Amino acid sequence: MKTSTRVVVIGGGVVGASVLYHLTKLGWSDVMLLERSELTSGSTWHAAGGFHTLNGDTNMAALQGYTIGLYKELEEITGMSCGLHHVGGLTLADNQDRFDMLLAERAKHRYMGLETEIFGPEEIKTFAPIINTDGLIGALYDPLDGHLDPSGTTHAYAKAARLGGADIVTHTMVKETTQRLDGTWDVVTDKGTIHTEHVVNAAGLWAREVGAMAGVYLPLHPMEHQYIVTDDIADIYSRDTEHPHVMDPAGESYLRQEGRGLCIGFYEQPCRPWAVKGTPWSFGHELLPDDFDKIEDSIAFAYKRFPVLETAGVKSVIHGPFTFAPDGNPLVGPIPGLRGYWSACGVMAGFSQGGGVGLMLAQWMVHGECERDTSAMDVARFGDWVSPGYTLPKVIENYQTRFSVSYPNEELPAARPNRTTPMYDIYDKMGAVWGQQNGLEVVNYFATGDEPRFETPSFRRSNAFAATAREVHAVRNAVGINETHNFGKYVVTGADARNWLDRIMAGRIPNPGRLSLSPMLAPSGRIIGDFTVSCLSETEFRLTASYGAQSYHMRWFLQHLDGDVQIENISDRVTGFQIAGPHARDVLAACTHDDLAEIRFMDLRKMVVGMTECLVQRVSYTGDLGYEIFCDPMAQRQLWQTLWDAGSAFGMKPFGMRAMMSLRLDKHFGSWGRDYSPDYTPAETGLDRFIAWKKPAEFIGRTAAEAERDTPPDRMLVAFEVDAEDTDVNAYEPVWIDGKVQGFCTSGGYSHHLNKSIALALIPRKLYKDNLKVQIELLGKMRNSTLIQEIPFDADGARMRG
Ligand SMILES: Cc1cc2nc3c(=O)[nH]c(=O)nc-3n(C[C@H](O)[C@H](O)[C@H](O)COP(=O)(O)OP(=O)(O)OC[C@H]3O[C@@H](n4cnc5c(N)ncnc54)[C@H](O)[C@@H]3O)c2cc1C
Questions:
Q1: Is 169 in the pocket of ligand 1 (CB under 6 A)?
Q2: Distance of alpha carbon 272 from alpha carbon 399, whole angstroms
Q3: How far is ligand 1, taken at its centre, from the CA of residue 294, in Å?
Q4: What Cα–Cα distance (Å) separates residue 281 from each residue in 41, 203, 207, 217, 285?
Q5: pLDDT of amino acid 54
Q6: Is the CB of 36 under 6 A from ligand 1?
Q7: Cα(213)–Cα(178) distance, integer angstroms
Q8: Cα dist. 444→447, 478, 655, 656, 662 in Å?
Q9: Which of 89, 133, 167, 273 has the most C-beta neighbours closer than 10 Å?
Q10: Does the CB atom of residue 151 touch ligand 1 within 6 A?
Q11: 46 C-alpha to center of ligand 1: Å?
């Protein structure tokens, strides 16, 4: 066995094997995989081997498409069979919400180039005659759905990796991972120690234990899962072609042909987590005892949907564990703050996702960044606050909702409330309808009178519509107040702070007392942050960005820290309020002795508000006259009382995130994770207007950004007014121009101030023209939409700057 290598991948399941193959594919051949038993000895060997592209996250869906396409490549490279059965599959819908979800998915697939189709009950019956179509509205047909041989596929990945120069060592157990002072690693095994630059944790069922060896907590948990293989069924084996896959969300089941019979698996409600206290090292090639009790109801439902099952005998039962992260997506990427330690864990659908996970991780390791936005699978999407106590109920919830409709406005209830600000009970008494962001309870809107304290999950306008309108009108006509806790906040100090920021940020770093807006770019020029930079002094700056991106941004900052610079994440140590609207200045003036006339737009000042020293910034994402007022959390309730008391004379109302997201549309402000993300560049999204081209600093991404300035990219972000009825743009809806899909929406919603449905969308630059007419596909309907030329609210900024 080698004692030194560039990468050690721990774990020879489908994920570890895929990571290893992709590293060799991208040119790293001095790589090694360690497996404590044989390849596939975790979840992989007993998987049902099904694959599909359907995923609520569009980037994940695209990577699932990549994974499926990869199997042919593996077969060609290795001459081995993955046992592929590309039989196509149906996802059934028995109610309008499920059907809406399929329509929304179908629409997204158009611009992703996936050839899915919507089937009606007749087509379902023709395609898959064993389905009882009573009560079905339709189905999504995906020709890419199919299944494979899990073991053969893992061995094909392994062979392809070996052909690329990788070493695979089985029957070698990793016992310790220890970091040396220079950041490299000693991987201690029962057969000796290997010195390596990079460790990849792909230990699947044992990922928690392997993570703990490096002091890393990975938020994942194994769940028990069961599928049944039937005896031969005449209706199946007498067919000319193999029966297609069927996902039946109402029955929480998936079904496919297995030999001359069927195989059906369930995501049952009375599900059970496995190995709560840790995965035993003794577990390997065994199964869990059959448990028909917990799937009794699921089986009864399946008999109705697939009547042939009722008389079919059971040939075998497969009951085994596999891991989930709290939101069901994989945990991939560099562990924040730990050099050379990478996660490739929590992959709950290894045969749909393993290829994409391997590709992204290998790109990250070899090129320093991935070709697309990986935020849905980035291990950094969970912050330091995450714990096993949080993970377990979320994982159970995830298992139970695996086949549920996933709505754009849905707030899942498990493990909540978790983190709250001092305002929680005050807002709760005022009728707050809560949402959750990065573990923090945030107000979505305030219900009043008889309005329910619950937003109905929907693809259409929800019951939050009227409340959101009220709050928007309060902001635009009087003054609104909401918390600033859910901003990611950082303090940057030190003699080199300005120089460092000049290199990290593409925008202008402001002078003392001033703010600036700045994109942060990757070397490829893609957007990895959208910041407000505040200069308190030449050696003290604050940064404000997305609350959900804290670990992602801190990881980047720490990776690029040099010189006399310190950076701290103070997101939860600083809180406060923003007040916005025509009376915002009047309210603040009533709470302070400072002269507000001196505070211009984009100024910041320390001032006493009520009894509290605050940092006040004159800026607002609402696009209105507004102030962000930051304080110590210990003083937040007092500050609230001060502002609230003063606000009553000016008609102040609290507002939530739903109103905020509507208000920003009036100014066509993009939002992080939607319109601004690593999938896009400044020149595509218009953020190039904030790049400080004249600054001498060689900021990260400069070369790429300059190249785009000289040769503008093919697409550009624009706004449309959509002729919508009861549903608005969410994200990724296709934009049809001249009868073809030529663009897609990045975000949208209803502007309650303008009384218009608005979409932000990327379209081909060459098609841009005044009053461009397009159609946007919303839930299967073509909606006429017109390009908006002028910013419709406060176009000259008189109000915001006034
Ligand atoms: C019943 C069932 C049905 C399923 N059906 C499907 C399906 O149809 N489609 C689908 O896509 N997915 C399915 N899955 C999920 C799928 O099995 C997993 O997504 C996949 O196997 C995860 O692979 P992995 O490589 O991450 O982990 P694992 O397969 O668990 O592999 C981890 C490997 O790491 C090794 N290891 C751990 N610790 C060490 C150590 N200290 N030293 C050395 N080696 C170590 C283990 O021995 C193991 O081989 C199913 C799962 C179950 C339980």
A1: no
A2: 9
A3: 23
A4: 11, 12, 11, 18, 11
A5: 85
A6: yes
A7: 8
A8: 10, 20, 8, 5, 12
A9: 89
A10: no
A11: 8
Flag whether the pTM goes above 0.90: yes
CA of 13 to the centre of ligand 1 (A): 5
**CA 321 / ligand 1 centre spacing (Å):** 8
Q: What is the pLDDT of residue 57?
A: 85
CA distance 508 to 695: 7
Q: How far apart are CA 149 and CA 601, in angstroms?
A: 62
Which residues pair with residue 209 across a beta bridge?
none
Task: Split the chain (802 residues) into runs of 10 and give each run's mean pLDDT.
Answer: 97 98 98 98 95 88 94 97 96 95 90 91 96 97 96 98 98 98 98 98 98 98 98 96 96 96 97 97 92 96 97 96 97 96 98 98 97 96 95 98 92 97 98 97 97 96 98 98 97 98 98 98 98 98 97 97 97 98 98 96 98 97 97 98 98 98 97 97 98 98 98 98 97 95 97 98 97 95 96 93 90
Residue 58: the pLDDT is 87
Mapped onto helix, strand or coil, the DSSP state of residue 222 is strand
Q: CA–CA separation, 691 vs 518, rounded Å?
A: 7
pLDDT of residue 110: 86
- State whether residue 337 is helix, strand or coil: coil
What is the pLDDT, as a whole number, of residue 113?
Answer: 84
> For the residues of 236-299, what is the DSSP string, one character each?
HHTSSSPPPEEEEGGGTEEEEEETTEEEEEE--SS--B--TT---TT--S--PPP--GGGHHHH
Pair of tokens at residue 334: 């560099």
CA 637 from centroid of its chain's CA atoms: 33
Q: What is the pLDDT of residue 518?
A: 98
Distance (Å) from CA 50 to ligand 1 centroid: 14
Question: Does ligand 1 lie within 6 Å of residue 358's CB atom?
Answer: no
Query: To which H or E segment does residue 90 belong?
Result: strand 89-93
Residue 166 CA to ligand 1 center (angstroms) comes to 21
Give the number of the atom of ligand 1 that is nearest the alpha carbon of residue 189: 42
C-beta of 318 in contact with ligand 1 (< 6 A): yes
